[in-house]
């Protein structure tokens, strides 16, 4: 067959897992091509509106499943462009979780201690600010005050934000016009480009096949830049190494669709999906009680009315991140802002019987939207998500011009997951309904299901081939030369925002990917500094390399 392009390494997706791989492999001398399904957007493209065709709907992928919907990134930079920029490290107890399999789900080689040097590598590469109370806007301050009133603690979260540039416009989730959020557009991706990597937006990978020489052929379509229901014939690229980083809602779908041409997939591909145990609660605050109970006032006669002012999550309650507690009883509570168009539509009316994201009561609730406080819960679930047979194209059947699609994920929460949600809901209520401060309702219900902005574990790493799609070096079992470095490789819920852990695992996977590339004749080395040239992190992982490059 003629006309097939060739490269050393093909990376699918440009979020944390893809960008980190692209940088290190390009910096090491490999020829790298990155295929990204979404458009290439920069600061001036991030419109602060909700018009169809503007950056808001172009940059997101909202896939409705059976019992679980996934909100992810759909642009160059992936989730780093549309996430809340919170970058905490996972608690120590997370790595000892048993979950639904009844034994430690993480590979024995990975613990908080062994991952710590890789966390440090990420912190050296992505500017992370430990926010202080002077950085906290009104909503974060109110959440902290409510926690204190209820006898709980609260802390500003570490975030990839330049606080000197942030204007508290609260549009962080839809990109940042002011370049305050330090997404991958400012770190790994420009460094990858500087070393010769090619990044191609609007390229959606459909399937992978194995060539006779042991390399792989990746087939892609070209996406219309405004209507994602439209696609044109793309092409194919041969590569010696494939790095899949399309996200936990898309990577398993690509592999499932590839099974006829690639060969049998590990049992765990598309199984053990986790929504990071996530759940959202909306509190409708009583302005008079904010003043009377908490003693807060922000001037002009207003006690609060500041839901629209701020940035992503700034304050979290971590009291329940206690390793001595039983599994499924540990969770974090984080104040954040879901902008109108998502937050206003999906929020439920406190005290309502049945779904209430529409109707007269919801209309009255919307009149008070400036007095809302949204609390994001990250609990421990049972990895109960399973992907069914893939659609003919893409990761979902597109319903709208952009963003909205119907996927094949089925998620039926177990009693363990439901108990974790109930405990987190009760904690939110105890903090925010105390002394009449607010009325609280969860978004999730039996009709519309659960939501996650942090999908995980659909192709997870592990020691047991029966319950993990990848070995502990992120290589797909039975398919040498194919690696997965996105959130689908994380074994289970983390109880905190996962970006830092996804990134640390991706950094840890690079030495093995480099070794595999060398074995396949690619002239590439490992050892690049951080994108800004710093080398402390590189020295910190030197002793770990022999174990990661074993064959």
UniProtKB/TrEMBL annotation:
Organism, scientific name: Sphaerisporangium rubeum
Location of the Glucose-methanol-choline oxidoreductase N-terminal domain: 67-271
FAD dependent oxidoreductase domain span: 8-42
This protein's UniProt keywords: FAD, Flavoprotein, Oxidoreductase
Designated name of the protein: Choline dehydrogenase-like flavoprotein
Domain Glucose-methanol-choline oxidoreductase C-terminal: 451-506
Pfam families registered for this protein in UniProt: DAO (PF01266), GMC_oxred_C (PF05199), GMC_oxred_N (PF00732)
Oxidoreductase recorded as keyword: yes
